[in-house]
Structures are given as C-alpha cells and as structure tokens.
Design goal:
With 378 residues, the protein is of the alpha+beta class. It has two domains: 228 residues, Rossmann fold (3-Layer(aba) Sandwich); 140 residues, Nucleic acid-binding proteins (OB fold (Dihydrolipoamide Acetyltransferase, E2P), Beta Barrel), CATH 2.40.50.140. Helix content is 24%, strand content 34%. The protein has nine helices and 20 strands. The strands form four sheets. Strands 6-7-8-3-9-10 form a six-stranded mixed β-sheet, with helices on both faces. Strand 7, helix 5 and strand 8 form a beta-alpha-beta unit. The longest helix is centred in the middle third of the chain and has 18 residues. The N and C termini lie far apart (59 Å). The relative contact order is 0.11.
C-alpha cells in the first residue's frame, strides 16, 4: 500500500463565530487522486487552502511527507495550486508563464527550455510557446496553468474547481485528460469540486464534506453503492430515501416499517434491533415494480409521469403520502402506464440501510398490516 503523503489531524477552522471545518481527519496516499466533494460553502476549498498554506488551521495539525507545515509559508511547502481563474500572467506568452517558477529559482536557461517544452508536450500544447494568454481558449489556459504548477515537480498538486469555467463538452474532455496526466506523472492530486459526476469520473477516492464535516471517504463505487449517511446517498447521484423503523429482525433480514408501507432489507451482521430507526436508500435503477404484490413488501403508488432523459426513462411514482419515487428504465416497453397503481420493491442487497436518527410516526407504521402485501387493487 502507498505511503501517506498528506495528513490532516483533528483540523478545525473558524472564521469568527463561523465553524467552517470541523475535526477533519484525512490521510492522502502518495500518487492518489483524492477529490473533496460537497455543496457550496461546505468547507472543501478552505480545507484545500489550509493544505496549501493560504489559510491556517485554527486547531489541529497538517503534515506533508511526514513534516508539520502549519508554520510554513505556501512557497515553502512541496505543493502547488491550480485555481479556477488560472491566475496566469496576461502580459506573458505561454512559455514565460510556464517557466516563471523556474526563473524565480534561477534554474539554468537550457534546463528551463527543456523542462518547459516537455511539460507543454504533456499537456498537449506543443507549438504554443509564443502564443499570448489573451489569445487562448479556456481549455488552453487551464492546460497552461496545470503545466506551470507541475513544472516545479511538486509532490502534491492542489486543484480548486479548475474546470468550473469551461463548457460541458470541454469539461468532460478535460476530466479524462487530467486523470490521464495524473496517472502518467504519479503525482498526488487533491481536487475540489461540487460536481458529483466529475468526482465519480476522476477520483481514486472521494471525501464528501457537508457543513464542515467529513461524512464519508471511500472509492467512487463504494460511495455510490454503499453510502453511509442520508446526505451522501442523496448528494451522490439520485436515490430514493425512505425513513423507517425495524419491526422484525431474524435470519439476517429485517422487516422495516414506513408510514407508507413495509419492506425487507438485508442485515448480514444481525446489527439491527426491533424499533431501531433506519433509512433505506434505493437507487432509481435498482427500484423495481410489479402490478401484483411482492412477498415482503406492501409499498405501493401511482405512476404520475414519464421523463425521457437521453438513454434512460425516469418513471415518477407517487406514494400515498405524496412521497415521489424515481424508477429508471432503459426501454419504453419496461414502463408502467401513467395512472397505473404499482407495487414497489427491491432486491435485498440493493436496499442500503443507513442508521441515522429521524422522526417516524410509529403509530402510522404499526397500523399497516403485515410484512407481505396482501391487499388488492383499490
């Protein structure tokens, strides 16, 4: 396993009475592409700026290559930062922008030329040496900014929403190019974005931050398939989230009761107990429906709408209490007609149980008969 190159230990950040980062603990591996993901104002950019040295932690410790860096200036840390606005020098051409850091360090001219040309080749800007920054597109400027940051051979590259100013098509292209470049160079990337798809596409691991709290850090596939909190389930992709209480638990399965029906989930470790408050998260592609009752479920609703979104069709189903459920299908023949009442269910391993406290009307839950849907169409 790769060694840790950046560590955040019990890091806190306050701006006056505003608690921006709360007890952040993260270890970033050498050569890893880690994305800090969360909504605007969640503390992800502040966390990045504390690693870079542009902000100081109120409490806690930050280490780069095992050495505490809280008292070091940004230029003394073995990290470089790429900003959303690129921060290029408009009065310089591409070569001089990329070479700037080497000239400050008084690197010999021949070495500067060799390294600049090599770096421009890596970011696919060969032949652009004399091009002025004002004559370049957003994608080209972004490549120049990355080349300028990488030419100093940092151990860690910090990227703060570097694709945010690009149009969608170019943004997707640059995601692939950035990931390719990171793997080729083997440099640790710490990347900030609020774009879930971007994080899933590029990252080795994703750290999801909400209101300054690290909610979950894991691989993209584990984040998507096994969210640990309701926030993660709802923030990454789309999910149907239903609050419930445990009614029965035996044989590694649990019957859960909701105000709109009952269902069954896996409990492989027998960690659930009767009356435990839980939520179940089911991705739209994993939500199934039937025109007849399914054993272990009596969750039903009415099909209200079909929404065509490229290669998938979203079927919107409204439950008795008004809760809207999304069901994704790839073919129109797999849909139920609008106005049809259907029974909803999921394969047991596709209903992700999240243990979080919430309020459920337990009387309403227990009024629903049985764990098997035995009622007929009304």
């Amino acid at each position: 396993m790769s060694k840790t190159i950046v560590s955040l230990m019990n890091v806190e950040k306050w701006y006056g009475d505003n608690h921006v980062v709360k007890n952040m603990n993260v270890n970033i591996a050498e050569g890893e592409f880690l994305t800090l993901l969360g909504p605007s104002g969640c503390g992800k950019t502040t966390t990045l700026r504390m690693i870079s040295g542009f902000e100081l932690p109120t409490m806690g410790m930050i280490k780069v290559q095992g050495e505490s860096v809280e008292k070091k200036e940004p230029y003394q840390r073995d990290v470089n930062t790429v900003f959303q606005n690129y921060a290029l020098f408009p009065n310089m051409n591409v070569f001089d922008n990329v070479a700037y850091g080497l000239k400050v360090k008084k690197v010999p001219k021949d070495e500067i030329k060799e390294r600049v040309l090599h770096m421009l080749k890596l970011v696919q800007l060969e032949g652009f040496e004399k091009r002025r920054i004002t004559q370049m597109s957003g994608g080209q400027k972004q490549r120049v900014a990355i080349a300028r940051a990488l030419i100093n051979r940092p151990k860690v590259l910090l990227l703060d929403e570097p694709l945010g100013a690009l149009d969608l098509k170019l943004r997707k292209q640059m995601q692939i190019e950035l990931k390719r470049l990171q793997k080729k160079l083997g440099i640790t990337f710490v990347y900030v974005t609020h774009d879930q798809e971007e994080a899933l596409t590029m990252s080795d691991r994703i750290a999801i931050i909400n209101q300054g709290v690290l909610e979950q850090i894991d691989t993209p596939i584990n984040i998507y398939q096994h969210p640990k909190t309701k926030f993660v389930a709802g923030f990454i992709g789309e999910s149907n989230i239903l609050d419930a209480i445990v009614l029965e638990d035996h044989d590694h399965k649990a019957v859960i009761g909701m105000e709109v029906g009952r269902g069954t989930v896996e409990d492989p470790d027998d960690s659930l107990a009767v009356n435990d408050p839980v939520s179940v998260s089911v991705r739209p592609e994993n939500m199934l429906f039937s025109e007849t009752p399914i054993e272990g479920f009596n969750l039903k609703g009415v099909v209200k709408e079909h929404i065509y979104v490229g290669n998938i069709i979203k079927m919107m189903i409204t439950l008795n209490d008004g809760t809207e459920i999304k069901v994704n299908r790839f073919r129109s023949e797999d849909l139920a007609d609008i106005g049809k009442m259907v029974y909803l269910y999921w394969e047991l391993d596709k209903g992700v149980v999240i243990k979080e406290k919430h309020l459920v009307n337990t009387d309403a839950v227990r009024d629903i008969e049985g764990g098997v849907a035995d009622d007929e169409d009304e």
